Amino acid sequence: MTRSKRNRLSALFALLWFMPALAFGQQQGSDAGKKSSPAGVTKSAVGSTAAVFKPKSAGDLVGYTIGEQDVLEIAVWKEKEMSVTAVVRPDGKIDVPLVNEIYVVGLTPVQLQALLVTKLQPFMTVPEVTVSVREINSRKVYLLGQVTHPGMFRINSTTTVGQVIAQAGGLREFAKRKKIYILRNIDHAQTRIPFNYDAVIKGQKDHPDIVLQPGDTIVVP
Q: Do residue 214 and residue 193 come from a single domain?
C-alpha cells in the first residue's frame, strides 16, 4: 500500500472515530449565534476559534472556575444600581459598586457570590447576591503545527486532544503522528506531555486520549 493511500485511510478512520465530537461542536457553533438568556452555569463543547460559550444550565459549569475575559452578571436584590455586568480583567479583577476592585480568578460563581455578600454587609442589612456566567472566554487551548486549521480553540471540562485535532480538520500528510505533545503549566513550570495519535485512534488502553486543561498548547511536529 502506498504512503498516500495509507494516509487517506488513516484520515478516514480518524474522522469516523471523532465524528460524535465534530457533530457536537457543529451544533454548539450553530447555537452560538442565537440569543440566549444568562444562566448560572455554562455549557461548552469542543471549541472553535470563533465560538463564544454562553452557559445554559447548571450542569454546564461543572468544574468551572472564573478566568480572565469571562463575562459575569452580578445582581443584588432590590439594589438595581448595584447590579452590573463585569468582564474579568487581565489582572484577574472586576469592579463592583461599593466593593470596588475584587480578585475573582480561580473562584467558582458560588464562592464569588459568598465573597460579595461578605463585602456588602457593611453597606446593607441582608445583601442577596446572585452571580451568573454570561460568557466563558478563559477556557481555551492552542493547536500548532501540522494540522489543517491551527489556532485557538475553546474547550469544556471533558474536551480531549483528539477532539480538538478533529475539530481542526485533522492532521496533515507529513505530520509526525506519534510525536505530538502537549505543553502544560504545572506549578509554574512548563511540562511536556507526549501524545501518540495512532495509538489513541486504535483504542490502545495504555494510550488514552488526554483531557485538555485551559492554557494547554498542542504541538504537532
A: yes
* Residue 47 lies inside a defined structural domain of this protein: no
pLDDT band at 53 (very low <50, low <70, confident <90, very high): low
Which of 135, 166, 194 is the last residue in one of the domains?
135
Mean pLDDT, rounded, for 133-145: 93
The DSSP-derived string for 11-44 is: HHHHHHHTHHHHHHHHHHHHHHTS----BSS---
Q: According to the model, what pLDDT value does residue 10 have?
A: 54
Which residue range forms the structural domain that includes residue 199? 3-33+139-220
Dihedral of CA atoms 30, 24, 145, 198 in degrees, nearest 10, equals -160
Region 72-90: mean pLDDT is 92
Neighbours of 146 (CB within 10 A): 16
At residue 113, what are phi and psi to the nearest 5 degrees?
Answer: -60, -45
